[in-house]
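Researcher: Please translate sequence to structure tokens.
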Amino acid sequence: MSQATKVRRNHRLVYITQYLTQRPNQLVHLSYFADYFNCAKSSISEDLDYIRGVLSENQMGTIKTISGVSGGVLYQPMVGETEAQQLIQTLFQQLKTGKRILPGNYIYLTDILQQPSLVHSIAKKIASVYQDRGIDVVVTIETKGIGLAAAVAHFLNVDYLVVRRDSQDTEGSTISTNFVSGIHRTVKKMELSKSSLKADSKVLIVDDFMRNGGTMEGLVNLMHEFDCYVDSICVLVDNSPELQTNLPDYQSLIKVEIVYDQESSKFVLAVEKGTIFI
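Model: Translation complete:
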């Protein structure tokens, strides 16, 4: 925008709101907006107060002010209780349709994870829970949860890493660990490039599905090999028979169970519960 151009306040309000909400958890200096609109920082502060009030009133997020020379403002997304309940009900409805049970008691989730708007909503909710935990990186394993992990990382404004199941020539030197997977308790390997993760990083593990927790335990062990700390684990759907008390701060959005339906003489998916992390 030209330095000589003056704009009305409603113009500034729309621009600032869109700019911040498109950059969640990213620090923005007030001088950027002041220079862009050729106005005083006091005017920008008044705009931010108004935007902050509207977002808070509608449970859309918060705008935090960071003081100091290098300070500024950042937008943190929020998912209100009503929106969260609607999200859980949408997931309930979709999980109850179609053929969901796969061999090995895995759950078919591909159609859900192929819906950008739904993945966006899920990731926003997950990020809103962990955004004040000081997460440095989101980690997942190469599977259908990559898109979800990337979306969570976007909302947290951090990098995301994909742990590989097989060697990649483009990865260079790697660190690997073995883990037990599936109902047959098969020993498999996962690995990650040595240069991809800094020591002492605080990690959030995100995945689409967990059945017996073997993969998650493998990821936790692999992070320890990098001298990193797994702060939390969050999965979309959990078909684990028991609560995973041995996993650090483990949570799932949806808990399901495979049960035998006498009427149809088939195994069916029973959606047990959903959590909105309140």
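Researcher: Any highlights?
Model: Residues 9-77 form a domain with the Arc Repressor Mutant, subunit A fold (CATH 1.10.10.10).
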